[in-house]
Design a protein that fits this description.
Blueprint lengths: L14 H9 L3 E3 L18 E3 L32 H18 L4 H26 L6 E6 L3 H7 L3 E6 L8 H13 L2 E6 L6 H7 L5 E4 L13 H17 L1
Parallel strand pairs: 1-2, 3-4, 3-5, 5-6
Helix pairs in contact: 2-3, 3-7
């Protein structure tokens, strides 16, 4: 539904989006902790699947509450960045599709098996690629990569923000800059959905390099094999800057 360079954190629905939601056989979303804009329209859809509501889906907590005076969940909604979560997501979607088209059950189960097999091969390849840089320290723009980092045992030293749609204060930036100077921070990663000016400003005058990570794979075409290319794009972004 989202176009390139759009973020689910601050997206505003268009009339054409409402039409897509109402006409779709199935609307898959993470849940209201991420796609706030879908909370009301989803009620009018024919069938929806909130992935974060799956009782088999273990959710990590954010390192700290936002402390912003607003009510927010402390659960990290970026579940698609964890290969193990991806298996649960694929199983959940498959089950819903079989309910809609039971005559295609065999085809869906066959594709699920193929997905899981390809995912295992992709993960093993990425593990080998990331091993040399596992201990290199870095900062990310927003706290979106925890599942990926925990799974591949990476060394994230911090983030600029938990909620990227909100402005970041000068005090926070000073703290980050001091951390970069005090610790061995190799890279700071910006994101294409948000202006890189803050990252560029913070990197200036330090030994750290600037990289880019895209937590939603906005430049990856939605087609067969897209998820595996997405995981590889995150790994490649880390390797290019940290290696």
């Amino acid at each position: 539904m989202l176009s390139q360079n759009a973020s689910p954190h601050d997206y505003a629905l268009k009339p054409s989006d409402i039409q897509k939601i109402q006409s779709a056989d199935l609307v898959v979303w993470v849940g209201s902790d991420l796609e706030v804009f879908l909370a009301k329209p989803i009620a009018k859809s024919r069938r929806s699947l909130a992935l974060a509501n799956n009782e088999n889906m273990p959710l990590r907590t954010f390192t700290k509450p936002c402390g912003c005076g607003h009510k927010h969940s402390h659960y990290d909604p970026h579940i698609w960045l964890d290969p193990e979560q991806a298996k649960i997501i694929a199983q959940s979607i498959t089950s819903e599709l079989i309910k809609i088209s039971p005559d295609l059950k065999h085809d869906y189960l066959s594709k699920l098996l193929q997905f899981n097999q390809t995912l295992s091969l992709t993960v093993e390849r990425i593990k080998r690629q990331l091993t040399p840089i596992q201990h290199q320290g870095y900062f990310v723009f927003h706290d979106a990569y925890g599942y990926f980092e925990d799974y591949f045992e990476l060394n994230n030293l911090g983030h600029f923000t938990v909620h990227p749609e909100r402005p970041i204060g000068a005090k926070k930036l000073i703290t980050i800059k001091n951390t970069i100077e005090d610790q061995s921070v190799q890279c700071l990663f910006s994101e294409p959905q948000f202006t890189p000016a803050l990252v560029e400003q913070t990197v200036r005058g330090t030994r750290a390099q600037k990289g880019e990570l895209d937590p939603v794979g906005s430049m990856i075409a939605v087609e067969k094999g897209s998820y595996f290319r997405f995981l590889e794009s995150i790994a490649n972004g880390l390797i290019q800057c940290l290696n």
